[in-house]
Amino acid sequence: MNPFLRASLAILSLSIAGAWPLNAFSAECETAKVHDEVRRWLTQIRDYEVRARISLEGQDVGSRITGKLPDRLRMRLEMVLPAGRLIQTVVFDGEYQWVESKHPSSTQVFKIALAGLTTPERPFDTAYYLMGTGLLNGEGFPETIADLLSVYDLKASCVDDFVALSGPIDVHAFAEYAIKRRSGGQKASVERFAKEFGHLRIELEPDGYVVSRYAMGPSEGELLFTVDFQEIRTNQGVAAEAFEYRPPAGVEPEDITEAVKNQGDAW
């Protein structure tokens, strides 16, 4: 099988089925201030460890993400399928993207050389994407949140101890963002995304404006895809060793660099 068929080419790697009540956040608060506080928090992140719970149509996925700016990232996804437990590990070590898929009876490892595929501005955008991380494809954690803030027209609302940003997609802004990706910004893809994920709501912790979850869907009343960030630790001094990768004993990695490059160039 073409290894590219094993990767999802959807825009997002998210979600948990569910939605917040429509009236959960109603009181208005200062939108510009909330945006500024979230962006201030993001710009202070140097490294991070994130644990998220993701589910799609009843399929639960546990995601653990470790990153170190500017170009190191490790993701671990775990899910139970009818055939048994699947564990996927993705590592960007500065030279390669490693993708390990551990099935009950076998383990497969792909490697992709990053030189010539990624750029310093987009160090994780090889166009080989996996669903279920809770991040935008080709992005790290702070980049994901910053990009969501940029491509949706989000207004702030507050009630009790909760703060939320909510609003529709800015199709023009999203189209400009999509063009930067190796998967391209074809008009049909942009229109499909805008239809399926036309509304976004982000929930924040008011103490520090840390993002605790986000949900997306066709409209405010259909926020069907949600990412719950259960734990976020930043600037703890993640060691370089966290981004080292060695294939399991007896497993020969398959180099799919050319297949990924050719597929990306075709878009």
Short description:
By secondary structure, the chain is α+β, with helices and mostly antiparallel strands.
pLDDT averaged residue by residue: 86
User: Could you describe the largest sheet, including whether it forms a barrel?
Assistant: 13 strands, mixed
- The proportion of residues in beta strands is 35-45%
- Write the H/E string, N to C: EEHEEEEEEEHEEHHEEEEH
Walk across the major sheet and give the strand order.
Answer: 2-10-11-12-13-14-3-4-5-6-7-8-15
Count of structural domains = 1
Number of helices: 5
Fourth-level CATH superfamily: Lipoprotein localisation LolA/LolB/LppX
Q: From the helix content, strand content and strand pairing, which structural class follows?
A: alpha+beta
In one word, what is the shape? Answer: globular
In CATH, the topology is named outer membrane lipoprotein receptor (LolB), chain A
Q: What is the class in the CATH system?
A: Mainly Beta
Q: What percentage of residues falls in helices of 4 or more residues?
A: 10-25%
Please supply descriptive tags for the structure shown above:
two-stranded antiparallel ribbon, 267 residues, single chain, alpha+beta, 5 helices, 13-stranded mixed β-sheet, outer membrane lipoprotein receptor (LolB), chain A, disordered N terminus, 15 strands
Describe the secondary-structure layout:
Elements: E1 12-13, E2 27-28, H1 31-43, E3 47-56, E4 59-68, E5 72-81, E6 84-92, E7 96-102, E8 107-113, E9 135-136, H2 141-151, E10 155-159, E11 162-168, H3 171-179, H4 187-196, E12 199-205, E13 210-217, E14 225-234, E15 254-255, H5 257-266
Parallel strand pairs: 8-15
Antiparallel strand pairs: 1-9, 2-10, 3-4, 3-14, 4-5, 5-6, 6-7, 7-8, 10-11, 11-12, 12-13, 13-14
Helix pairs in contact: 1-2, 3-4
